[in-house]
Write a structure and sequence with these properties.
The structure holds two protein chains of two kinds. Chain A has 14 helices and no strands. By secondary structure, chain A is mostly helical. By secondary structure, chain B is an alpha/beta fold. Chain B has helices spanning 49-56, 65-76, 98-104, 120-131, 135-148, 164-176, 194-209, 222-228, 246-250, 265-274, 297-306, 320-332, and strands at 12-21, 24-34, 38-42, 86-89, 92-93, 105-108, 182-186, 214-219, 231-236, 239-245, 256-262, 278-281, 286-290, 309-315. Chain B has a six-stranded mixed β-sheet with strand order 6-7-8-3-9-10, with helices on both faces. In chain B, strands 2-1-4-5 form a four-stranded antiparallel β-sheet, covered by helices on one side. Chain B has a four-stranded antiparallel β-sheet with strand order 12-13-11-14, sandwiched between helices. In chain B, helix 5 (135-148) crosses helix 6 (164-176). In chain B, 45% of the residues are buried. The chains are: A mainly alpha, B alpha/beta. Chain A binds chain B through residues 6-11, 13, 15-18, 21, 24-25, 28, 31-32, 35, 145, 149-150, 152-155, 157-165, 330-331, and chain B through 21, 54, 57, 59-60, 99-100, 102-103, 107, 109, 111-118, 122, 126-127, 129-135, 137, 141, 144, 147-148, 160, 174, 176, 178-179, 203, 206-207, 210-212.
C-alpha cells in the first residue's frame, strides 16, 4: 500500500495573473477590521441617521395621506387635490432652499421640480451632517493603522517581496478605506432613497439621477479622505498619532476657517477648513454650489478650482509621504 | 512575457552590481553566478548580504525615474554615465521582471514580520494568494506548509502571540506556500532554540537535496551555512571577497601552512606573492600561507630566492570557521 509522504510536496497547479493583484489584501484586511468592536459600533452609528430619515419619510407620508383621506376639506375649499399634494416635509424643504436660492415663485414650480430640489437638499444634508461625522470616525478607525501597523510589525517586507508593486500595496490599502466609507455613506443613502421611492408616488422617476451623484460624491469623499489618511498613517509607527493628527487637522482647520471667515467677512477663508472643501464640491455636484452656506445661511459663491486645488495638494503630499515610507521599508 | 518551461541552469547571475545609499556603497561591483542547489552568503554585519538579497528580489537598486532620465540625457550628449550593473534571477532581469521573479522565489526576512491580528493560516494563505495561487489551492497549501513547519496545532492562533521560534517557522511557511524554485533566507535561525535550529536546518537540507528547491542562506553563523550549503559567497564592505565550494574551502587546510622565517621578510613575502601564494600575518613572526595549487615547495623556493632562513614550516589545522575568517582577513588586507 502506498504511503502518503507527509513531507514537502511540490505544487503542480497554475498561477493566476489577475489584474487586481491587491484584491486578496483587501479581503483579508476587511475581515481583520470587522473583528474590532469599534468598527461595528461605527457601522451602527452610520445606519441610525438613515433609519431616522426613512422613518420620517414613511410616517410623514402616511400621516399626510390619512389627513387628506378623512375629511376632504381642502378639496372643498379649493386647495390642491390629493394627487398634487406633496409630503409636508418636502414642501418645507423646497420653501427653505428656494429662499436660499432667491426663488420667489415657489408655488409655480412643478411637482417634479419640487421633488428634485427637495431630493438634492435632503441628500446633501444627509451626507454633510450626520454621515460626514461618521466618515470622520470610520476613516480614522479603519485607516489610521493600515500602514502604521504594517511599518511597526514589518509586514511591508512580507507584502513587497510578493509579486505586487508598491502601487498595488497602496491601492489595496486604499480600497479597504473606500469600502468602509461607502458602507457608511452610500449604503445608508440608498436605504433612504429606496424608502422614498417606495413611499412617495412618482418619486423614482424624478429623483433617480441623484443615485449616480450620490455614488460620485461618496466615491470622491472616500478616495480623498482615504489617501489623506493613508498619508498620515505612513508618517508614524503608531496608529494613535495618525488618529490624533487626523482629528486635530479636521477640527482645528474647521474652527480656524469659521473664525477667520467671520472676522474678515470673507467667505474664501472657509476653504481653510478641510471638510468645508468637500461641502463646497459636493454642493456643486448636487445643486450648483449654492448649498454650501456660511453659518448665517448665505450661500458661498466661489470658483470650484479653489477646493479642487487644496484637496489635490493634500492628495499629492499624502502620496509623496506614502511613497517615501514604502521606499524606506524596501531599502531597510 | 513567456514563462520559462524548464528550470534555468543558472539560478543567479550578478554582473558589476552596485547599489548606493547616498554616499554609502552598499554593493560595490558585485559579480558572481550561482548554478548549484544551495549557496551561503557569509560576511560581517554591513557586508551587504541583505542588500544583495533585496536587490535580487528587485526591491532596491532599481533606477528611479529621475536616474533613468538623467542617464538618457547623458548618453544622448555623449557623457559617461554610471554603470550599475545587472542581475538575473532564474533567467529573469531583476529590474524589469521583478514581479515574475517574486512569483517564483520565496523570501524569509531577517526581522520579525507579521500582520497584526492575523491568524497563521490566513497569513500563509494570503502569501499564496498574493503570489497568484487560486484561493482554494492557497488554503489547502497553507495548511500543508504550516504542518510541514511543525505549527499544525497553532495554525488558528494569531501570529502576534507566537514565540520567536514559531515566528521564524511561520515565515518559512509563507515563503514556501507557493512552491518557489528558489528561497532566500536572511538569518533564518535567529531566535531559535538549539533543537529548533537543527530542525530548521534539516528542513532546508531536505528542500534542496530531495525536493530540488534552491536555497540562498544569508547568515553570520558559519556552522549553519556549513551544514546546509554546498557553496559559499563571502562578502565584505559590499564586495564579494570569495566564491567557493564549501568542500574546497574546507580543503584549504591541506594547503595552508604556518611559516616562520628569519631575514628579509619583505623579500620573502614578495616571492610568495609572485609564486601565487596568499599570506597573512598571524603574529609578529608567524605567517599563515595558503599555497593554493602550487604546493609547499613554493614556500621553500621563495625562502631560497629571498635568502631568508626558514625556521618553522607546519601544516595548519583549519576548521571551516578558520577558513572563512582567514578569507575575511585577506579581504581586509
Amino acid at each position: 500500500m502506498a504511503v502518503f509522504d507527509q513531507g514537502y510536496q511540490r505544487w503542480k497547479g497554475e498561477f493566476e495573473r489577475p489584474r487586481l493583484r491587491w484584491l486578496p489584501m483587501v479581503r483579508y484586511q476587511i475581515a481583520l477590521t470587522l473583528k474590532r468592536r469599534l468598527i461595528w459600533l461605527i457601522l451602527f452609528l452610520a445606519i441610525v441617521p438613515s433609519l431616522g430619515f426613512c422613518g420620517v419619510i414613511y410616517f410623514s407620508t402616511e400621516l399626510a395621506d390619512e389627513f387628506v383621506r378623512v375629511p376632504d376639506i381642502e378639496a372643498v375649499l379649493g386647495g390642491p387635490s390629493p394627487e398634487d399634494r406633496l409630503n409636508p416635509l418636502i414642501e418645507q424643504a423646497v420653501s427653505e432652499i428656494s429662499r436660499q436660492r432667491g426663488i420667489d415663485e415657489v408655488d409655480q414650480l412643478s411637482r417634479a421640480d419640487k421633488y428634485w430640489i427637495a431630493t438634492c437638499y435632503a441628500f446633501y444634508f444627509f451626507l454633510m451632517v450626520p454621515q460626514s461625522f461618521v466618515v470622520l470616525l470610520v476613516t480614522s478607525a479603519v485607516g489610521a493603522g493600515l500602514i502604521a501597523q504594517d511599518v511597526r510589525s514589518n509586514a511591508l517586507e512580507i507584502y513587497l517581496t510578493k509579486p505586487i508593486t508598491a502601487l498595488d500595496y497602496i491601492l489595496g490599502k486604499l480600497a479597504v478605506i473606500v469600502f468602509f466609507i461607502l458602507l457608511t455613506t452610500f449604503l445608508p443613502s440608498m436605504l433612504v432613497f429606496s424608502t422614498a421611492a417606495m413611499t412617495l408616488q412618482g418619486y423614482f422617476d424624478v429623483a433617480w439621477p441623484i443615485v449616480p451623484r450620490l455614488l460620485g460624491a461618496c466615491l470622491f469623499a472616500s478616495l480623498v479622505n482615504g489617501i489623506f489618511m493613508l498619508g498620515l498613517s505612513s508618517l508614524a509607527k503608531s496608529s494613535r498619532y495618525a488618529t490624533v493628527i487626523w482629528f486635530a487637522l479636521c477640527m482645528v482647520s474647521a474652527l480656524a476657517s469659521f473664525v477667520l471667515a467671520g472676522v474678515t467677512e470673507n467667505a474664501h477663508w472657509l476653504f481653510l477648513g478641510y471638510r468645508n472643501n468637500f461641502s463646497f464640491l459636493i454642493g456643486e455636484m448636487f445643486g450648483g454650489g449654492l448649498m454650501f452656506t456660511i453659518p448665517r445661511g448665505e450661500p458661498v459663491v466661489a470658483s470650484p478650482m479653489i477646493p479642487i486645488a487644496i484637496l489635490g495638494a493634500i492628495v499629492l503630499l499624502s502620496v509623496v509621504i506614502m511613497r517615501k515610507t514604502i521606499r524606506s521599508a524596501e531599502n531597510r | 512575457m513567456t514563462e520559462p518551461t524548464e528550470k534555468p541552469a543558472t539560478a543567479i547571475v550578478a554582473r558589476d552590481l552596485s547599489v548606493s545609499y547616498g554616499n554609502l556603497k552598499a554593493l560595490d561591483r558585485v559579480s558572481f553566478s550561482f548554478s548549484g542547489s544551495s549557496l551561503g552568503l557569509l560576511g560581517p554585519n554591513g557586508a551587504g548580504k541583505s542588500t544583495l538579497i533585496k536587490t535580487l528580489l528587485g526591491l532596491v537598486g532599481t533606477e528611479s525615474a529621475e536616474t533613468r532620465l538623467l542617464r538618457r540625457i547623458k548618453s544622448r550628449f555623449g557623457f559617461p554615465s554610471a554603470e550599475i550593473g545587472e542581475a538575473r534571477v532564474l533567467g529573469r532581469d531583476c529590474r524589469r521582471e521583478a514581479i515574475e521573479i517574486r512569483r517564483r522565489v520565496g523570501y524569509v526576512p531577517e526581522r520579525d514580520c507579521h500582520i497584526p491580528g492575523m491568524i497563521a493560516v490566513d497569513y500563509v494563505t494570503l502569501g499564496g494568494e498574493l503570489a497568484g495561487m487560486p484561493r482554494e489551492a492557497a488554503i489547502e497549501r497553507a495548511h500543508e506548509m504550516i504542518r510541514f513547519c511543525g505549527l499544525g496545532e497553532a495554525r488558528y492562533r494569531p501570529v502576534d502571540g507566537y514565540s520567536a521560534g514559531m515566528r521564524q517557522r511561520i515565515k518559512l511557511a509563507q515563503a514556501l506556500v507557493h512552491d518557489p524554485d528558489l528561497i532566500f533566507l536572511d538569518e533564518p535561525t535567529n531566535g531559535l532554540d538549539p533543537e529548533g535550529r537543527v530542525i530548521l536546518l534539516d528542513v532546508l537540507r531536505e528542500l534542496h537535496r530531495k525536493k530540488g528547491i534552491r536555497i540562498i542562506l544569508s547568515s553570520h553563523l558559519l556552522r549553519d551555512v556549513e551544514y546546509v550549503c554546498d557553496e559559499v559567497v563571502i562578502m565584505r564592505a559590499g564586495r564579494v571577497v570569495r566564491h567557493e565550494n564549501i568542500e574546497e574551502l574546507k580543503a584549504m587546510s591541506d594547503r595552508s601552512w604556518h611559516v616562520r622565517v628569519r631575514g628579509d621578510q619583505e623579500a620573502f613575502l614578495k616571492g610568495l606573492e609572485q609564486a601565487g601564494c596568499r599570506h597573512e600575518r598571524v603574529d609578529k613572526d608567524l605567517l599563515a600561507v595558503d599555497t593554493a595549487e602550487v604546493g609547499s615547495d613554493a614556500i621553500v623556493a621563495a625562502a631560497v630566492a629571498a635568502g631568508v632562513q626558514l625556521r618553522h614550516l607546519q601544516k595548519r589545522e583549519l576548521s571551516f570557521e578558520d577558513a572563512i575568517m582567514s578569507t575575511l582577513r585577506q579581504g581586509d588586507g
